[in-house]
Amino acid sequence: MVKKQTAGRDNLGDFAPKFAELNDDVLFGEVWSRQKALSARDRSMITCASLMSQGLFPQLEAHMKMAKQNGVTKTEMVELITQLAFYAGWPKAWSAFSLAKKIYGK
């Protein structure tokens, strides 16, 4: 079961209410809850890979925390980053490893 997200409303509810609604209800409500099609664990791995590839590290940090909660192990996250280093870039991998160490521990 995917945890109900309120980040959109918490951070942008007053400023951009429609965006907040789409974030919380559609992206995290409808898409992430389709676990028969793809598990939350797998969605987390895909999302982390995409965010690392784009160099979106503030969002990657939040999704790495979710990935850990969704069952992605430290070993799997290390492999994900190592694999992507060759496709997304070595500096991005270094940055992602810094986040992973913070989230998963040394």
Q: CATH class, please? A: Mainly Alpha
Fill in the CATH topology. AhpD-like
Write down the overall geometry: globular
Structural class of the helices, strands and pairings? mainly alpha
| Largest beta-sheet details | none
Number of helices: 6
Segments where pLDDT lies below 50 for 5+ residues? none
How far the N terminus sits from the C terminus, by CA atoms, comes to 28 Å
Helix and strand layout, with pairings?
Layout: H1 7-12, H2 17-31, H3 40-54, H4 57-69, H5 74-88, H6 90-104
Helix pairs in contact: 3-4, 3-5, 4-6, 5-6
Report on this model:
- By secondary structure, the protein is mainly alpha-helical.
- The protein has one domain (7-104): AhpD-like (Up-down Bundle), CATH 1.20.1290.
- It has helices at residues 7-12, 17-31, 40-54, 57-69, 74-88, 90-104.
- The longest helix is centred in the first third of the chain and has 15 residues, at 17-31.
